[in-house]
Amino acid sequence: MARNTTTAFGILLVTWSLTTTGCFWGFTTGGPSLGILSVPIPVSPYFQEQKEDEYWEHERYDRVPILGPTTSGGPPVALDPPCDDEVIRALEKVHPVESGVPLLWERNRNKVRIVRHKIADYVDPPRVYPLIGPAQQHHAHYKCTVYYEDVRRVGWPVPHTLRDEEAEEVVYIDHNHLHMVGNVDTGVNAKF
């Protein structure tokens, strides 16, 4: 009796596993199934935005471009100065503004003005970089001064607003890129 029950239970278990895992499509009407993996997992918007910001910074500011050889007839000039987005992101890494709790405590930066000064612009002598070949590194250093109005609103226990209209922060940003050296074959005119 126990053997018949064990055999019947085994057959029932095999039949159930074949029809619910998607391994045997004959018994299922909806096609293959991912089982528990088909249940969506909620992701917090905070983590989603954090990952998007990391990708944005990697795509825009963390890569080192490789440009063509420097032209003769004058010193090489650096690429564009840092944009407003890059300066504010660098400022947020150094001095973040906590958003606070609405109607209890908030802090904002208003009337933002950015002044950029090029501190240095120079080119290193040629050297061989792994996976790139012979190249020169071009350095450009910028001092970015951010002037803004710092507004702090406190809503409890006594509602009041604190304003610092002459707040300023300084951020230093380095722009580095490479210039190829010598007779460079970029592969543009390659014949196949």
Q: Mind summarizing the main beta sheet?
A: 5 strands, mixed
Radius of gyration: 30 Å
Shape: flat
Structural class: alpha+beta
Determine the number of helices (DSSP H or I, runs of at least 4 residues). 3
Helix content: 10-25%
Would you mind describing this structure in some detail?
- By secondary structure, the protein is an alpha+beta fold.
- The protein has a domain at 53-180.
- Helices cover 24% and strands 35% of the residues.
- The chain has helices at 2-20, 45-60, 84-94, and strands at 66-67, 105-123, 127-129, 133-154, 160-180.
- The longest helix is centred in the first third of the chain and has 19 residues, at 2-20.
- The chain starts with a helix and ends in a 12-residue tail after the last strand.
- The model has no long low-confidence stretch (mean pLDDT 83).
Structure at a glance:
About 25% of the residues lie in helices and about 35% in strands. The chain has helices at about 1-20, 45-60, 85-95, and strands spanning about 65, 105-125, 125-130, 135-155, 160-180.
